[in-house]
Amino acid sequence: MRILTEHGPKDYQAVWMEGGKLKMIDQRLLPEKFEIVVFEDVEDVGRAIKDMTVRGAPAIGAAAAYGMALAALKGKDLDESGELLKSQRPTAHDLFYAVDFMLGALKRGEEPTKAANRYANQIVEKCRLIGVNGALLIKDGDKIMTHCNAGALATVDYGTALAPIRVAWRGRKKLFVYVSETRPRLQGMKLTAYELRNEEIPHAIIVDGASGHFMRKGVDLVIVGADSVALNGDFANKIGTFEKAVLAKELRIPFYVAAPISTFDFDTESGKDIVIEDRDEDEVLVMNGKRIAPEGCGALNPSFDMTPAKYVTGFITEIGVLDPEQIARVRGARI
Amino acid sequence: MRILTEHGPKDYQAVWMEGGKLKMIDQRLLPEKFEIVVFEDVEDVGRAIKDMTVRGAPAIGAAAAYGMALAALKGKDLDESGELLKSQRPTAHDLFYAVDFMLGALKRGEEPTKAANRYANQIVEKCRLIGVNGALLIKDGDKIMTHCNAGALATVDYGTALAPIRVAWRGRKKLFVYVSETRPRLQGMKLTAYELRNEEIPHAIIVDGASGHFMRKGVDLVIVGADSVALNGDFANKIGTFEKAVLAKELRIPFYVAAPISTFDFDTESGKDIVIEDRDEDEVLVMNGKRIAPEGCGALNPSFDMTPAKYVTGFITEIGVLDPEQIARVRGARI
After folding, report:
1. Running DSSP on this structure, what letter comes out for residue B151?
2. Which of A191, B32, B40, B181 could anchor a disulfide with B189, C-beta 3.0 to 4.6 Å?
3. Cβ(B208)–Cβ(B11) below 8 Å
4. Average confidence (pLDDT) per 10 residues, chain B, 335 residues
5. A contacts of B299 (beta carbons < 8 Å)
6. pTM for this model (two decimals)
7. A234 interfacial to chain B (CB closer than 8 Å)
8. In CATH, what number does B130-330 get?
């Protein structure tokens, strides 16, 4: 992804391996500070996944792959390391996929760093293809709404929901992007708007509750990411996604989910079986270290919601745009 | 409304007249500080309406009525004072209604404070009746969702959307209230949760984007307030209301709008003619004086949205629960 630094634009990935160490952009500090953190142990990588130094399902997958590489390089027990990583975020299917990928590769004797790089590079290439496939759905002058950050920060590079927007923009289509801020952690405001500004793509931040208002005023398509897609096309994504899907259906706006096939969980029949992570109420009640809620009041803080397949126009993947009914046919054809 | 003070529970109104001066709870400081501000001039009352020291359509109406009383007591030009007050918040129909009420009363020679008290007491009594009528819709054990603050703070006392909840609770019905925080100004979190805690009504704060998630998990009814209701039943309310209405319809949850007849604008045919106020982008981008958005990114900040009548199950008013089609029949029967 392009970052405008004081020395001009520079290309970065969200996570990468360098000199036997794992490096990540610390996403908790954005947009105020751009800082790189360095990891040498799988346990620390687990903590970084838990505390959201790295977030976004595909980027979590890449971080986990590199975490497994670190474990292998240090001679740690691979199964135990895999279990440790898997336990950090229960909703991110890529996390399980990446750990299993690495267990397979390492047990076949592949060099750890090479295997993890192969995994991360595959993600980057898949996201680039999601961009190419999704950009075909975007017309010159379109107004697009997205939610949370399904950008390069969430996916090593390109993004999932932002990949079609990046590719269409670089292809000289005029665009305008509505970025819903995505409470409680404001990843839309803090990360997606940050990425769009770095690419100089026109956009405006809106509060989550204004999505319906602007959809009615004129949005041409909605593109969101996914943390997990079930076999029947039900999917989990950041809290607030379900609302946008219902509104898009009601207002007859195409609603697309951009995700690599690694986010599809073919062993989960439907959304009813997707585990939704509840996070600490302080994410809602405290802002910048200061309590913003009245004393004595509590919050409920589900991190994700589940959107039934009937609200999805199509899944933008690296192998094309799929109808929900086509997902089952991809099973077994993992690329 | 009941406020738990260090000396035990005490009853307050949002605005009232005392010794020829207008007093208000400063709602910008809640929930951190409970502070009373005092006004002697209509110009200062106008500023307090603009800067949201007082907010909520009926409370704005009462503040405007008292502002007109102050103008009359100081011998100011009444028409000019009325215009000044009306220009502060373009979407609040009660503001226009209150100014016109006072112009009529003052021109008939009524004593200013007495006329304004009559207006404010009418609001309190209307809200109490909204509570009684609305409480009949609430069953023991119901889970209720509300948005923004349509509570006692917004309406002098009782509230509109919160009045049925207060009356049902005081009638010993068990309840649980989902309070959506209501970005950007967080009136749900800061004011509604504050009121519910002071009444000791069980509740949880949720982010606005979680409304659909919890509606699907099980909400028995949604009750919101209104800033303006058009003749055909379309209505304006805090941004985010339209989304809840669409979700409630999709999930077959009754969706009620609680408002006194003074909020009904019989001269506005439909929602298309309701003026939606855009407020400063810093309400979205800045929190507690600190910028939370990336530098160089802008926001769009409509304060209200418009919900078409077809999403409304009923309007809870002081004269009963009305279907949208019944509104036109009330025209001319102002009470």
Report:
1. S
2. B181
3. no
4. 88 94 95 94 97 92 97 97 94 88 97 97 96 98 97 94 97 98 97 96 98 98 95 97 98 97 91 91 95 96 97 97 93 62
5. 204-206
6. 0.91
7. no
8. 3.40.50.10470
